[in-house]
Amino acid sequence: MPPYLFLEIDKAKRKAREEGRDIIDLGVGDPDQPTPAHIIEKLYQASRDPATHRYALDQGMPVLRQAIANWYKGRFNVGLNPETEILPLIGSKEGLAHFPLAFLNEGDYSLVPDPSYPPYKGGTILAGGKPYLLPLNQANAFLPVLKKIPAQIRKKAKLLYINYPNNPTASTCEKEFYREVVEFASKNKIIVISDLAYSEIAYDGYRPSSFLEVDGSQEIGIEFHSLSKTYNMTGWRIGWACGNAKLISALAKIKSNIDSGIFSAIQLAGVAALEGPQQHIRETCRLYQERRDTLIQGLNSLGWPVTSPRATFYVWLKIPKKIDSIKFSKLLLEKADIVITPGVGFGQCAEGYIRMAITISKERIKEAIERLRKIF
Ligand SMILES: Cc1ncc(COP(=O)(O)O)c(C=O)c1O
């Protein structure tokens, strides 16, 4: 197993801060805005009730599973049975990483996009499986080209990970792509894992779809979702998996051997998030959109051409010099006190790229541009 990329970056960042340097952090994608007050208030109230202090062994509180079902129906018009088709998670990361334990035998393949969020590959390796990498690049609009997967790999592949809106490339997909995935996965008997963590972080009127909206998806697929980005709750650790009942029950079985549920007060706060006022999501997206525009205009003014993303809080950039992404990241840290994420941390195909996260203020983004201007 390689070391987890973000921990390495965090170490370098901490060291630079200890040296007294004024670091601008465009690295890890962690919302800087606070969790809305009504959600915090619910946690406070719920945590005063001793009933919430015990193990939460029931595969998620029924009230939370129902709130998730209602949210999916309202947002995507997808009907889910709260008893069998929804499983709350201690953040979607653990579910994404544990899922392969239920389905991969030694030597089986997972089809993993390259670049992608690291736990897809990590979870596959931990389960004894082999990641088969699907290159995402500009030429294929950052979508995996399924028809290029060789027949002998299709035979040994059990899982396919997809993630739109995408981390790290910020690319999006249309429903047509999901239809193609359903056809491919049904024909080859492959389970689809759709990661929808960024569905609510979108701009310019764009509204991402769910994989589960497409006919046939629920026979072969499972979708992972998170309260982290939508409600600024990354540290709370709450998300869920939903979709095919057999897949949900297999993941629940694995998890029942590993963890003992989410703190009940956090589950009740999760209900408050899903059922309470949603106004802040629009406001947060407006804030990110403003920052995105500031960053893109700034980069363009440096002669650095960048595509403006319509979702996620990431900007995916081709490095303008002939230098690899780790060296370029080190250069920016040394010469400009700027932290960014090297593309290669998400996969070999992302060599030559870097990712910037717009989870800092507009003023700091402007300052970052001025620092870059000095070294370009
Ligand atoms: C694509 C993607 N999926 C899932 C997650 C995990 O979210 P959480 O575990 O906080 O629910 C992240 C977090 O950065 C992500 O980028």
Keywords for this entry:
alpha/beta; 42% helix; 3-stranded antiparallel β-sheet; binds pyridoxal-5'-phosphate; 7-stranded mixed β-sheet; 376 residues; single chain
Structure report:
The protein is of the alpha/beta class and 376 residues long. It has helices at 5-18, 37-47, 62-76, 92-103, 119-126, 151-156, 175-188, 217-220, 245-256, 264-275, 279-301, 325-336, 362-375, and strands at residues 24-25, 86-89, 109-114, 130-135, 157-162, 191-195, 221-226, 239-243, 314-318, 338-339, 341-342, 353-357. The chain starts with a helix and ends with a helix. α2 packs antiparallel against α10 and α4 (92-103) runs parallel beside α5. It is built from 13 helices and 12 strands. It binds pyridoxal-5'-phosphate. Pyridoxal-5'-phosphate (PLP) binds next to α4.
